[in-house]
Amino acid sequence: MTWEYRVVHINIESGNPPEPPTPASDSSRLGGALSADFLRREFPQQYQVGARPPRHPAAQLEFFLNALGKKNWELLEVAQVGPLLMFFFKRPFLAAAGEHEVERESQPPSKDTAKP
Questions:
Q1: Is 39 exposed, middle or buried (0-12, 13-18, 19+ CB in 10 A)?
Q2: 49: CB partners within 8 A, 6+ apart
Q3: 40 contacts: CB under 8 Å, gap ≥ 6
Q4: pTM for the complete prediction?
Q5: How far apart are CA 12 and CA 14, in angstroms?
Q6: CA angle at 111 for the pair 108 and 116, rounded to the nearest 5°
Q7: Mean of pLDDT values over 18-33
Q8: 36-67 residue pLDDT tens
Q9: Alpha-carbon span 52 to 80, nearest angstrom
């Protein structure tokens, strides 16, 4: 059987999770390039009072892993490489479903399909 692999990484940081965004903190993080008033006016949905707080990182990861599972990716291993958490997946390679971009790019065009 032939396997197809996928590697996904996330950056991990120690410490507390970030606070919900505010126009002032985001303006500061951008070095003042965009003012707090501009951010509040242009992105009202981001800063509205009572806005839904961001999902916990574990819930975000669960959603992501379930999405890959629905596409038949199987989680093989998780490893930390410096500040990166690497997720290794595999699934059977199905040639009948069509070739993948990597395979097409690495194959020279056949004489039948090559254009002058």
A1: buried
A2: none
A3: 23, 47
A4: 0.54
A5: 7
A6: 95
A7: 85
A8: 999 989 988 888 766 667 788 889 899 999 99
A9: 31
b/e 69-80 (16+ beta carbons within 10 angstroms → b): eeeebeeeeeee
- 74 phi and psi angles, rounded to 5 deg: -110, 125
β-pairing, 84-92 vs 74-81, is antiparallel
CB 104 within 8 A of CB 8: no
Bridge partners, 6 (sequence order): 89
Closest CA to 21 of 34, 6, 8: 34
DSSP for 2-56 reads -EEEEEEEEE---SSPPPPP-HHHHHHHTTTSS-HHHHHHH-HHHH-TTPPPPPP
At residue 74's C-alpha, the angle toward residues 71 and 78, to 5°, is 130
Helix (H) and strand (E) counts for the chain?
5, 3
Q: What distance in Å separates the CA atoms of residue 2 and residue 95, rounded to the nearest whole number?
A: 9
